[in-house]
Amino acid sequence: MARAKIKRGSTSVDMTPMCDVAFLLLTFFILAAQFKPQEAVEVVTPSSVSNKVAPEKDFLNVTISKDNKVYLNMDPKIKADVLDELGKERNMSFSAQDKKNFENADFIAVPFSQLKQFLALTPEQVKSSIRSLPGIPVDSTNNELKAWISAAINARMGEQLNFLIKGDDAVKYPTFKAVIDAFKANDQYKYNLVTNSKQVPEGSELYKKNLMNQRTGKNE
């Protein structure tokens, strides 16, 4: 008896619906993505084996460049409150345009006496003059970083605020100490040091500890 022939179906698949879904998802992620703010300066951070990630919200970040200049940036959503509090504490007045400029600024790198002029600069002007910016004073006679930290703390009273310190590996100790002193002056002893993460050396005590934690399902 002859074997019945099975009609072969088409093996082609219409990919149009899948392409449409992929395109819609790509569009959504592009529109919903929050772009990382411009870095004040490029710094080469020290290496560490820490696997903790620096907080990306509710933060105040102090950057120290290799030429020992101090820069400040913060979470955009807290900027307005911090500037208002700074005005109260330092008896400084800011116009609506000053506040708008501050919210649009990627970082602060000047003393209070030059703050309004700095905020009035366009992004192109800031970029072209970044090497000549003096940075925030942190010397023993005029540590203005203390005031910025105080304003941030009081503006966020009762709410979480993550302090970050990102220093170049070539920073001299006196500058780093001055930054730490600014935090101490505000009774802040908890902050995150931003480092360049690297693999834990095999055979080290930390390596053995992490391996044991993985085996027991314990996370630290």
Describe it:
The chain is of the alpha/beta class and 220 residues long. It has 8 helices and 8 strands; from the N terminus they run αβββααααββαβαββα. It has a domain of 140 residues. A hairpin with a 2-residue loop joins strand 4 and strand 5. The chain is extended, with a radius of gyration of 25 Å. The chain starts with 15 loop residues before the first helix and ends with a helix.
Task: Name its key features.
12% strand; 4-stranded mixed sheet; two-stranded parallel ribbon; 8 helices; alpha/beta; 220 residues
Distance between the termini: 71 Å
Q: Main sheet, how many strands, which sense, barrel?
A: 4 strands, mixed
Tally of DSSP β-strands: 8
Which structural class is indicated by helix and strand composition? alpha/beta
The proportion of strand residues reads 5-15%
SS summary, helix count? 8
Could you tell me the radius of gyration in angstroms?
25 Å
- Envelope shape: extended
- Helix content, binned percent: 25-40%
Spatial strand arrangement across the major sheet: 3-2-6-7
SSE layout and pairings?
Elements: H1 16-32, E1 47-48, E2 59-64, E3 70-74, H2 79-90, H3 96-104, H4 115-119, H5 123-129, E4 138-139, E5 142-143, H6 145-155, E6 162-167, H7 173-185, E7 192-193, E8 196-197, H8 205-216
Parallel strand pairs: 1-8, 2-6, 6-7
Antiparallel strand pairs: 2-3, 4-5
Helix pairs in contact: 2-6, 6-7
Brief rundown of the structure:
This protein is an alpha/beta fold.
